[in-house]
Design brief:
Layout: H1 4-23, H2 27-51, H3 53-62, E1 75-81, H4 85-96, E2 103-109, H5 116-124, E3 130-134, H6 144-155, E4 160-165, E5 168-170, H7 175-180, E6 189-191, E7 194-196, H8 202-224, E8 235-238, H9 239-243, H10 248-251, H11 262-268, E9 274-276, E10 284-286, H12 291-305, H13 311-340, H14 344-372, H15 380-384, H16 388-401
Parallel strand pairs: 1-2, 1-4, 2-3, 6-9, 7-10
Antiparallel strand pairs: 4-8, 5-10, 6-8
Helix pairs in contact: 2-13, 2-14, 3-14, 4-5, 12-16, 13-14
């Protein structure tokens, strides 16, 4: 075992060696290395604090460290449907079988022209705690999704609402219980995970990854920074929040088609009143078909509504994207130039830091998916880390060039 004096001499020799290596570099390469280290550190902080947050919640709940609500108040599950008779026929029985003592289901049919009405009449006989209503397709003065949400909430006799869609099915019979357990005192809104059903094909795999990537980002930023969006596929809230302040949550954006989920959450969010339910039991699987159409439509909608989000999470998100590109580009530059100068120590250090970054980018979503019990992504995070921000920019540009389509009565 080394003595204290030996350790001191070793430390001094290491510091001297590092100083010699550093001062042997050209000044411009020193600047590139400093920028690389700064960007790498920012990425490390983001990945460990924000990106890893859903995984931390999964582990905390499994170990019983989360504060949960043991009460089971009445809940109304509001299901939005539009020409989805097959989805309703397949998924409503699964919803009825949820292991929760007090809940009812309200299906809001958005003027469907298929067999949806016949399916809903069949379901009337399956459960006494089932209601359904229809939106007249001639309504043009308000968003149909917002109107569906409003009708479902008004039809409810319970104090808690869970919003979902016809193509979504619970991954567990304890779905409602898991979501409701996060309504501890002070919490008004609970956001829960939704993933696309696993499909084959390269593009389908990209859509699945992108959806999951945005899910991790949304849950991570909401939990670690501030409310960042929301998905009506799996969104729960107290009924009193919906009607508070003369329904101000909707009145601000009544002229917009989108916003029944993300803008609603942003309007009602206060300090500490938005929680995240992240567990295998709180998961919903989105069986949307075809994926490409639904994915692009959702992407475009959120590219437009993102301008109304809170500033803090948006700034953190943009810092992440900027530092990601800077980290990769400057890291490769440092390694390449160091190899050209035959400075193997600098080259090895740069490649080692890039490897650590790549491992975190891959392993965090991998273990998050594993804990949720869904399809695990191996190479997608690494391949799409620099691609998805470009996709974001394309949809933002498309949304800004044609804003009229998002306003009620302007189509």
């Amino acid at each position: 075992m080394l003595s204290r004096k030996s350790l001191s001499l070793l430390a001094k020799s290491v510091i001297k060696m590092l100083q010699d290596i550093w001062f042997s570099l050209p000044v411009w390469l020193q600047i590139v290395c400093i920028v690389f280290l700064a960007a790498w550190f920012v990425q490390l902080v983001y990945l460990l604090i924000v990106r890893r947050r859903p995984l931390s919640l999964l582990r905390a709940e499994k170990k019983g460290r989360l504060k949960l609500n043991d009460e089971q108040p009445g809940v109304t599950v509001v299901v939005y449907a539009h020409n989805q008779s097959d989805d309703l026929l397949r998924n409503l029985p699964v919803l009825f079988d949820n292991d929760y003592p007090f809940f009812d289901v309200v299906v809001v049919d958005d003027g469907s022209t298929d067999d949806t009405e016949d399916v809903l009449k069949q379901m009337d006989q399956r459960s006494e705690h089932f209601q359904h209503t229809t939106i007249d397709e001639k309504v043009r003065t308000v968003s149909h999704r917002k109107l569906a949400m409003m009708l479902g909430v008004k039809a409810s006799h319970n104090d808690y609402i869970i919003m979902t869609q016809a193509q979504c099915v619970p991954a567990s019979p304890k779905w409602i219980s898991s979501v409701m357990s996060r309504f501890v005192p002070g919490v008004d809104v609970v956001m829960s995970p939704v993933v696309y059903e696993s499909r084959t094909g390269i593009m389908n795999h990209f859509y699945q990854w992108d959806y999951f990537d945005r899910l991790i980002t949304m849950l991570g930023l909401t939990s670690a920074v501030k409310a960042y969006g929301g998905w009506s596929s799996n969104l729960a809230f107290r009924k009193e929040v919906f009607f508070a302040n003369k329904n101000q949550a909707f009145s601000r954006h009544l002229d917009l088609h989108p916003g029944e989920d993300d803008l609603f959450v942003n309007c009602v969010a206060r300090k500490g009143n938005v929680a995240v339910a992240c567990s295998p039991d709180s998961l919903l699987v989105n069986q949307l078909q075809p994926l490409r159409y639904g994915w692009s439509k959702d992407r475009l909608k959120r590219a437009f509504t993102a301008r109304y989000y809170f500033l803090a999470p948006c700034v953190v998100r943009h810092i992440d994207i900027f530092s990601r590109y800077v980290c990769v580009l400057t890291g490769l530059a440092c390694a390449g130039v160091a190899a050209w100068l035959q400075n193997w120590w600098v080259m090895g250090a740069a490649l080692a830091l890039l490897l650590i970054h790549a491992l975190l980018v891959v392993l965090i979503p991998y273990y998050t998916a594993k804990r949720l019990g869904i399809h695990r992504f191996f190479f997608s995070p690494l391949l799409c880390a620099l691609l998805t921000p470009m996709v974001d920019a394309c949809f933002s540009m498309k949304a800004n060039l044609n804003t009229k389509q998002f306003y009620v009565g302007r189509i």
